[in-house]
Cytochrome c553 (Desulfuromusa kysingii), 108 residues
Amino acid sequence: MNWKAFLMIGLILTAFTATSALAIEGGNARKGKHLFKKSCKSCHDSGGEGGELTPMSKTMSQWDRYFKKKTDDHPGEVFKTISDKDKKDINQFLHDSAADSPAPATCG
Ligand code: HEC
């Protein structure tokens, strides 16, 4: 292997590490809280058709798993109408206030 190939591989690995770190901490929880109230609470308030849902309904890893794998199974169109960025912000808010987080919270 010549030094150029070696350098390329190094660069690629660095880029990968940087983006995967961002993927976990990339959302804006403050915006996510607003978006959650706006886009989710209509159905997920107490007595709502989706059942009451607050950040404390799940643990941090349950929220992350839901947003990574299960939003396609969510009934209706809501997850198809919000952007990836908004989805990430909502995920961040729910994660940061989850049942096992340092600061568990209901939605207020
Ligand atoms: C149009 C109504 C509606 C909206 C808006 C809505 N949901 Fe739902 N949601 C539902 C229904 C209905 C279910 C299925 C409930 C069931 O199976 O008991 C559900 C299920 C869920 C579940 C699984 C519940 C569980 O206990 O695991 C999650 C998580 C969820 N929704 C999150 C969200 C988030 C986050 C948003 C906002 C981006 C949202 N929902 C917006 C109607 C809605």
The pocket of heme C is lined by residues 39-40, 42-44, 49-51, 53, 66, 74-76, 78, 82, 90 (CB under 6 Å). Residues 37 and 107 are 8 Å apart (CA to CA).
